[in-house]
Amino acid sequence: MVYYFSILILALCIVMFTYNSKVNRNILYLLGFLIPIAAYGIHHHLIFFNESAFKLAIINTHGIPLYYLAGPMLYFYIRNTILDSNQLSKLDFLHFLPFIIGLTSILPYIFEDFDYKVGIAQQFIDDPNSIKTVHSHWFYPNYFNVIARPVLLLGYSIACLLIVWKYTNVKGNESPIVQRGLITKWLISLSILAFLVALLYLFMTYLFLSTQNLKKDTFNELPIGTFTGFAYAIIPVIIFIFPRILYGIPRAIQTINIPNEEEDQELPIGQPRENYLNDPLTETAERILTYFEQSKPYLNTKFSIDDIAEELNIPKHHVGYCFTNIIQTKFTTLRTDYRIAHAKRLLLSSQVDVMTMEGIGLESGFASKSSFFSVFKESTGLSPFDYMKQHKNQGAYRKFPKNHSENFNRPEVT
User: Fold this and answer.
1) How sure is the predictor about 179, in pLDDT bands with cuts at 50, 70 and 90?
2) Top-confidence range, 32-36, 78-82, 224-228, 326-330
3) Is residue 289 within 8 Å of residue 327, measured between CB atoms?
4) Which of 128, 135, 170, 383 has an alpha carbon within 20 to 30 A of 316's alpha carbon?
């Protein structure tokens, strides 16, 4: 059971790296925790449930330094998620000492012939008790790693729980409203899961080392193995339960005071909604909207959400949070609304006399005439020609305004 869920965890790591790493670089620390956990599950399976010495020789001993990264990476992920940062300090590199020591200790083994490694692997498969006596390290016997791995992870998981507890009781109010409960639930779940996996492996290690001549079949039938399998099964489950977490949890320490709006007041498109007016990221949402109105980036046919993050120096997951929870309008929808509003002004100005419809579409940010016509009709119910004729007949034909911002603050929806 552990083996198959370990493979699933590795597959999820690939998906998360592909789709989330550019949005939330902090996800790399989470992967740094999950990959060693999955690799250790595979390693365990290859020793106790596998008959191929070749497969075991590939991962055996080579993975030892990797396993020492699980605890520190979990700590970095949880701490930096709370701090809304992906930076490491100089002191943080001390957490990599177990990894460096582990890597140094296996250097002689790394440069051994592969046939030698296959022989060691076959010893472990035939009699796992040989792990207690075989020496393939410089500094310490093999069984030291068997003990050190779960102990280290257990210590880090306890430290992570303390960090989350401190955040919940002291710093929680500094997080955006929508994310406060989400942060706590996700990080507590992850820390408890790490604690559980470490505790189960530590107990398994105790049984293994304290029992003389333990038979493989007897060891495999112990209930502890089933419990460990369930713990591994929970890992992908909580990832599916908290998918939004993987894109980053924005958190801001600044606070702003914005007057409350009347409950029944209808806000224009792009206006921060009343329930989020006291959200620490409301100011960021206002910066985004001001950028739309003053810089008019939507007139660029290639304008994307990445441009907002780069131009305003805002983390991309903050931008996504603002659109989803404060502005409460999709980026693509807001971009289209501004483009349509700009096209309407052009259609009802003297510019229409010297521009083609394709030119008006390109000037408004649409990549082609066909996309301009289809989106415009979907938004207004009229083609650009019909819209222009209808409003001309109503006496709406006017000169193109010199200062757009004086006449246009939010997208006009008709």
Assistant:
1) low
2) 32-36
3) yes
4) 170
- Pair of tokens at residue 45: 């399976």
Displacement of CA 251 from its chain's centroid (Å): 14
CA 158/CA 192 separation, integer angstroms: 8
For residues 51 and 202, the model is more confident at 202
Q: Which two tokens mark 167? A: 């955040």
For the chain, give me the number of helices (H) and strands (E)?
20, 0
Residue 264: count other Cβ atoms within 10 Å of its Cβ.
5
Nearest-5° Cα angle at 394, 388 to 398: 65
Domain residue ranges of the chain, discontinuous segments joined by +:
2-247, 274-407
Degrees (nearest 5) of the Cα angle 21, 8, 142? 95
Written as six digits, the tokens of 63 are 């993975």
Contacts of residue 101, defined as CB under 8 A and 6 or more positions apart, other chains included, come to: 139
How long, in residues, is the chain?
A: 414
